[in-house]
């Protein structure tokens, strides 16, 4: 683990295999609903964000890539610089998400960022706010519900960490 990298199991399970490199400022996070498993011989680049996913062996997650909860990255997959693997998306073994592209769905079509309508058509039924926060996207107060639930979860976690350990997390 390089400087500034964060591995946070929260109230969930975070498992990291052998010979895993987590570069500076990368954030790896698990939760009660989404464990994070990282296989062997994985490189996670600087500023990458990986939350509640299954990452198989020999995977490369490049600088600034984002891997969302429920994602599965098959053996030898690559997510290149600024690539995105959306919530509940499955990348097959050996698949590559090119620089700045988006993988969304199961099985995942891999689309360039300028094809927003196609990305949204695949992404909407995956229900990010419902999957991650348990909030109905169409509720008139969806953001109020989302932020209040998230705030309560963060408060609960901060109370569960012993006082002296908070500075060492």
Automatic annotation (TrEMBL):
InterPro entries: Transf_Hexapept/Carb_Anhydrase, Trimer_LpxA-like_sf. It comes from the Bacteria. This is Gamma carbonic anhydrase family protein. It comes from Pseudolysinimonas kribbensis. The lineage of its organism: Bacteria, Bacillati, Actinomycetota, Actinomycetes, Micrococcales.
């Amino acid at each position: 683990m390089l400087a500034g990298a964060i591995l946070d199991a929260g109230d969930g399970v975070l498992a990291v295999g052998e010979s895993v490199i987590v570069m500076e400022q990368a954030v790896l996070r698990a939760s009660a609903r989404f464990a994070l498993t990282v296989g062997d011989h994985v490189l996670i680049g600087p500023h990458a964000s990986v939350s509640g996913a299954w990452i198989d062996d020999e995977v490369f997650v490049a600088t600034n890539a984002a891997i969302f909860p429920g994602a599965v990255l098959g053996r030898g997959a690559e997510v290149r610089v600024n690539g995105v693997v959306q919530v509940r998306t499955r990348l097959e073994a050996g698949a590559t998400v090119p620089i700045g592209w988006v993988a969304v769905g199961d099985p995942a079509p891999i689309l360039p960022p300028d094809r927003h309508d196609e990305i949204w058509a695949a992404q909407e039924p995956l229900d990010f706010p419902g999957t991650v926060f348990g909030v109905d996207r169409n509720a008139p107060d969806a953001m109020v519900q989302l932020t209040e639930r998230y705030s309560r979860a963060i408060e609960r976690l901060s109370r569960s960490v012993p006082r002296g350990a908070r500075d060492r997390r």
